[in-house]
What we know:
5 helices; elongated; mainly alpha
Amino acid sequence: MKARAVEGLRPEAPLRENAVSILRTRLNELFSFAEAALEPGAVDAQHDMRIAAKRLRYVLEITGFCFGSEADAARGAARALQSVLGDIRDCEAMFPRAQGIDSLTTVLHTRRELLLRRFSGLWEEQAKEGIWVGLERALG
């Protein structure tokens, strides 16, 4: 998945100003995949959301000090999303290799279902905790 272009970056501007533009773009990118990624068979959307979470996390690792504790919380939330979505992706990658081994296929399907529930619960928990709203507020 190609990263969305960030509009309005100005090299002469302060770091915080450019970081706001980048973080808003990355946050919007993350949210654009959420609805589809929550569907059980949405393998591509889940993968794209994992990549979007990774990009958001990395920008927060570099610029988070500009935005305080809300950025720290969002970085942790992005890391958690990236992790669970990566585990789901690992199951998907193993399915072709498990062809013909019924017990392994069953384990992979069960694990994937559990991970999807974990992802859904995590996304809901992050919303209830106001992680993403907090980041938006910190961006100003």
